[in-house]
């Protein structure tokens, strides 16, 4: 069993920066980074509550706990490092990565046409 943290994907999907989440929650940038990468020992209810409220305020309509955290059964996970897991959907070969390096660069303002 693995608990999957989906905060980074949600932030990328909605174009929300780490700074915006930190400001809206009152959680430091470092701790928001740890939360989104799953590098925390435990998630407090108050922290999850603050994240959900902040995401809703930043335009993620109807955001709920299941949008931020998920569960993956043992037979659907692949270990990529000690204590770090990713979900491996059964139809992986039919899927594309909407959060590719190019998409991340675009969200950071590093790609695409220049405006003057």
From TrEMBL:
Family annotation (InterPro entries): Cro/C1-type_HTH (IPR001387), Lambda_DNA-bd_dom_sf (IPR010982)
Organism: Eggerthella lenta
Gene3D superfamilies in alphabetical order: lambda repressor-like DNA-binding domains
Protein name from the UniProt record: Transcriptional regulator
Domain named HTH cro/C1-type: residues: 7-65
Listed Pfam families: HTH_26
A molecular function (GO) term: DNA binding
């Amino acid at each position: 069993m693995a608990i999957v943290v989906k905060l980074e994907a949600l932030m990328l999907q909605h174009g929300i920066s780490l700074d915006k989440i930190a400001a809206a929650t009152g959680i430091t940038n470092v701790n928001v980074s740890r939360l989104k990468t799953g590098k925390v020992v435990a998630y407090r209810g108050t922290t999850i509550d603050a994240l959900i409220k902040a995401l809703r305020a930043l335009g993620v309509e109807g955001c709920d706990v299941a949008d931020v955290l998920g569960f993956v059964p043992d037979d659907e996970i692949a270990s990529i490092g000690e204590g770090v897991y990713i979900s491996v959907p059964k139809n992986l070969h039919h899927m594309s990565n909407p959060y590719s390096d190019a998409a991340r660069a675009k969200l950071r303002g590093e790609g695409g046409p220049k405006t003057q």
